[in-house]
Design a protein that fits this description.
Butyryl-CoA Dehydrogenase, subunit A, domain 2, single chain, alpha+beta, Butyryl-Coa Dehydrogenase, subunit A, domain 1, Butyryl-CoA Dehydrogenase, subunit A, domain 3, binds flavin-adenine dinucleotide, 12 helices, globular, 3 domains
């Protein structure tokens, strides 16, 4: 889709495309088949990304980041969506929640992530608490001025072993009119601290080579300066800084869908059966038409959400709509593309099966489709007092 965009954004887009042509696309097959990004390659991507100003481009200039506008970030996220997280996550965009760092935390965590000296993980999900984040069992117990962290996290993802994790844990309970509610606190936890074990976890078939980590905490002692934001306000900190996360998932789904649709269209135009291109059979051609329509709608939803966020009017339901619509749009296009390719769609020789596998994750992480629908439903019923 051609967004009406500024000259600056056009230049940015051509830089990003050239960067991807050189550093991501040539390595996709190797990374998928070996399930690894060689450390040397990852570090090379990291260094080049810094050189051309893409590293930490999402963070403001005051902290040394690229200070890109949301519309510029939209273009990047959409473009990066065409390749695998295993590769583009090396060209890092550190999590914006680090902007909540205060005092010494800025030198210890935020600034080293901007320069690439440190890498972080965002650790919310637990084996027994996925969609139901409030069901978390990780706890922080007060001990004098310190906190003692216990519990575990899984599926915590990143390109490589991190230097620290932003860990969410329950630090007490509040009485509310709807019953007791956990107080959740975000802690900055350094890898290497006594009692903190961080190791590679199970491997996902989506984005092979993008690692998941398993974290466990056994009486990990943390000083009060390790709290990010305020005690008991972990979700508020996350919500304040991570509002665009689901929109960027949507943008990335659009990029991937475009790539897949291009491949399916070319195949439908060139593969012949019964003496004609298979795209001329309505059953095949209409899949392309439906894909093109839903992709356009998805792109417009992302652009609309970006505009809403810039105006300060984007709601949780807006973000949920983008996440669920774009990821499901991608799922249908990826599945149709396999169908259009017939048996070849499942063969390792072609990238279709990989893109189909990669697409599947988008309906699950950052809140499943079902959870997004709950958010949307709640926003509708609330208007009627239900
Ligand atoms: C590759 C990968 C990387 C990830 N990276 C991170 C990361 O960096 N940090 C992090 O914190 N997490 C991460 N996650 C975790 C991810 O966000 C969770 O997997 C996701 O939120 C779903 O949780 P779950 O897997 O426990 O599924 P569950 O919560 O067990 O859900 C299973 C099914 O039940 C459905 N379900 C659950 N509750 C309801 C309900 N109330 N109504 C209807 N249906 C419901 C779900 O929609 C889903 O279909 C990652 C996951 C993967 C696979």
């Amino acid at each position: 889709m051609n967004f009406q965009t500024s000259h600056e954004n056009e230049l940015l887009l051509s830089t990003v495309r050239a960067f991807m042509e050189e550093n991501f696309f040539p390595h996709e097959e190797m990374v998928d088949s070996t399930g690894e990004v060689p450390e040397e390659l990852g570090r090379e991507i990291e260094a080049k990304s810094r050189e051309i100003g893409l590293y930490a481009c999402n963070l403001p200039e005051e902290v040394g980041g690229g200070g890109l506008s949301l519309s510029a970030q939209h273009l990047i996220e959409r473009e990066y969506g065409k390749t695998t997280h295993a590769l583009h996550s090396w060209a890092a965009r550190p999590t914006e929640i680090l902007l909540a760092c205060e005092g010494d935390q800025r030198e210890r965590y935020l600034l080293p992530c901007v320069t690439g000296e440190k890498r972080e993980l965002f650790a919310l999900t637990e084996p027994e608490a996925g969609s139901d984040a409030m069901g978390m069992r990780s706890t922080g117990r007060r001990d004098g001025d310190d906190w003692i962290l216990n519990g575990s996290k899984h599926f915590i993802s990143g390109p490589c072993m991190p230097d620290f994790a932003i860990v969410f844990a329950a630090t007490g309970e509040d009485d509310t009119p709807r019953g007791p509610r956990k107080r959740v606190t975000a802690f900055l936890v350094d890898v290497g601290l006594p009692g903190f074990d961080c190791r590679e976890g199970t491997k996902s078939v989506s984005y092979r080579g993008y690692k998941t980590f398993q974290l466990s905490f056994e009486d990990v002692r943390l000083g009060p300066e390790q709290i990010l934001g305020e005690e008991g306000r972990g979700f508020e900190v996350a919500n304040q800084w991570l509002g665009m996360g689901r929109i960027w998932v949507g943008a990335s789904c659009c990029g991937k869908a475009e790539r897949i649709l291009d491949m399916a269209s070319e195949w439908a135009a060139t593969r012949r059966q019964f003496g004609q291109p298979i795209g001329r059979f309505q059953a095949t051609g209409f899949r392309l038409a439906d894909g093109a329509m839903t992709l356009r709608a998805a792109d417009l939803m992302v652009a609309d959400a970006v505009a809403r966020h810039e105006r300060g009017t984007m709601s949780d339901a807006d973000a949920a709509m983008v996440k669920v619509f774009c990821s499901e749009m991608l799922g249908r296009i990826a599945d149709d593309a396999v169908q259009i390719h017939g048996g070849m769609g499942l063969m390792e020789e072609l990238p279709i099966q990989r893109l189909w596998r990669d697409s599947r994750l988008e309906r699950i992480w950052d809140g499943t489709s079902e959870i997004q629908r709950h958010i949307i439903t709640r926003s509708i019923l609330r208007l009627y007092g239900a």
